[in-house]
Design goal:
The complex is a heterodimer of chains A (256) and B (271). Chain A is of the alpha+beta class and 256 residues long. Helices cover 36% and strands 14% of the residues of chain A. Chain A contains nine helices and seven strands. The longest helix of chain A is centred in the last third of the chain and has 16 residues. The termini of chain B are far apart.
Chain lengths: 256, 271
């Protein structure tokens, strides 16, 4: 271990649930000599190795992960009462063990929201977000190659705001944090990133209506503007996009 | 607009528009109540004007519809939100401190406000507009004697007056929290907001709710302190500064502009 690095002995309180309809419960595990330089998911890997080695009856802990670079939106843990853990503006995979102290007890839970049923342990089904995207979160392109970047002038503020909205990785922290289980921050980011750009404006009305209708159909809650989603979003997507979604939705309905 | 009001955003828009309507009513109510601070007689004139006239009754019906819509949709949305949240709860949830207390507790605050409203109705509306409409008689004061009713409840009832003053101040505190979030949230929901205007709307909401609630609280404290003068008689309508002895010939047939000797001047109730 490199100089200056510390090792931690931790108690992990982890949610274990065998399947979607099984009764879940918390189980406690001890992990030792975890480097402060390890990522949180590496610590979870170490725990799983330990559970395999000791032939734990529940087996290794199931949890979502993929890129481990904060881009894919797959990791989804609720750590010590916060989505993606105690640090701001990062995903779980970007969380490092230096944020914890030796002897800490860390509570690890899955997203708990009606829209995200638990598949196993810490893994939840977030296909509802895919379904919302399929309902209208795209620009229909019927033909042609990639146009010249300068062919359609876009004002810099609009491009910046569209990029900020496009930063949403669809991890589900917004709905998981929201006391109403609302997916409005996700839907608004996806509507905004296209509604702000000329390429997306043609289908803006149709898109807003279709995505909101799908969101409602899937049983997500209503936004009460608590702003918790924005504060817990690993990409700091602003709730100002929710105002834009409301505007787009109202415009689309008035036009009908 | 087909299906708009069944959508989540449509229902929220109903909450917002009805909320903004109620906010406007609060502003009107405060302006009306502030009159009692300057002139109890003029306040009673306002009460007489807003008595059981058809326009006042129609206005009350519209207002009641606004309240009902706001309350019904608050419960409808809350039931849906609880269902969407699911049965399972986090073992621990440490929301960032920036999440406003009011935004998480709007329904509870709304219920406190509704309870206060029922008390208020029982004290004033039932004994003023309703009493006039129903032809009730035998009450301590008439339906147009608003200043006397305020004095009675907040000053003349001893311990009950102190209790009512405290209840009203708690009511206004709940109203402040509810308005503080509801004001900017309503604009946000109807789409009249963006990253520039969110902090501005929050600031306006803070000022607006403070002015409204401090205004109401001031009137209650003013009444509790016994500062509302309901003893001095009001001038007869159209003859300010005229009182019985003057009219009875002390100054001849002409209206006097000064009280007669040993006589208390009447209050100018407006011309």
């Amino acid at each position: 271990m490199a100089e200056g690095h510390k090792s931690l002995n931790l108690t992990l309180k982890v949610w274990r649930q065998a399947g979607r309809n099984a009764q879940g419960q918390f189980k406690e595990y001890t992990v030792k000599d975890i480097s402060t330089e390890a990522s949180f998911l590496e610590m979870m890997d170490i725990l799983n190795e330990q559970l395999i080695e000791t032939a734990d009856p529940d087996g290794p802990v199931a949890f979502d992960h993929d890129c481990r670079e904060g881009i894919c939106g797959m990791c989804s843990l609720f750590i010590n009462g916060r989505a993606h853990g105690p640090d701001d503006d990062i995903t779980t995979c970007q969380l490092h063990m230096r944020k914890f102290n030796d002897g800490d007890k860390i509570t690890i839970e899955p997203w708990r929201s009606g829209g995200f049923p638990i598949i196993k342990d810490l893994m939840v089904d977030r296909s509802a977000y895919d379904k919302i995207m399929q309902a209208g979160g795209f620009v229909s392109v019927s033909t042609g190659g990639v146009p010249d970047a300068n062919a359609i002038p876009i004002p810099k503020p609009d491009a910046d705001e569209a990029m900020d909205a496009a930063a949403c990785i669809g991890c589900g922290a917004c709905a998981a944090t929201c006391k109403n289980g609302s997916a409005m921050l996700f839907v608004s980011a996806k509507v905004s990133q296209l509604a702000l750009l000329p390429q997306g404006k043609a289908e803006a009305a149709k898109r807003a209506k279709a995505m909101v209708a799908k969101m409602d159909e899937l049983g997500f809650g209503n936004c009460t503007n608590t702003g918790a989603c924005e504060l817990e979003c690993p990409k700091s997507v602003s709730i100002s996009h929710i105002a834009r979604l409301n505007r787009e939705f109202l415009k689309a309905n008035v036009k009908d | 607009m087909k299906g708009f009001f069944k959508s989540s955003i449509g229902k929220k828009v109903i909450m917002s528009v009805s909320g903004l309507f109620l906010i406007l009513f609060l502003l009107f109510h405060l302006c009306m109540n502030l009159v009692v601070v300057f002139s109890p007689c003029a306040y009673n004139e306002v009460c007489a004007f807003l008595g059981s006239n058809w326009y006042a009754v129609a206005g009350t019906m519209v207002l009641a519809a606004g309240f009902l819509l706001h309350i019904i949709y608050a419960f409808v949305l809350t039931v849906q939100n609880r269902k969407a949240r699911g049965k399972d709860r986090y073992d621990s949830q440490n929301l960032p401190k920036d999440v406003e207390f009011a935004s998480k507790n709007m329904l509870v605050l709304g219920i406190i406000i509704a309870c206060g409203l029922l008390t208020h109705f029982g004290q004033f509306w039932a004994k003023m507009m309703f009493a006039e409409l129903a032809g009730c008689e035998g009450l301590q004061f008439g339906p147009t004697q608003g200043a006397q009713w305020i004095n009675y409840y907040f000053h003349d009832c001893g311990g009950l007056s102190i209790a009512l003053t405290i209840v009203y101040l708690v009511w206004f505190a709940a109203l402040w929290l509810h308005l503080n979030h509801g004001f900017w949230s309503a604009f946000h929901t109807v789409g009249l907001s963006n990253s520039l205007w969110i902090p501005r709307l929050k600031c306006i909401a803070k000022w607006f709710s403070t002015i409204i609630c401090a205004g109401f609280a001031f009137i209650v404290i003013w009444a509790a302190a016994g500062a509302i003068d309901t003893k001095t008689p009001c001038c007869p309508k159209g003859k300010p500064e005229v009182h019985n002895q003057c009219q009875s010939g002390h100054h001849g047939d002409k209206p006097c502009d000064k009280p007669c000797q040993g006589e208390k001047p009447c209050q100018n109730q407006g011309k």
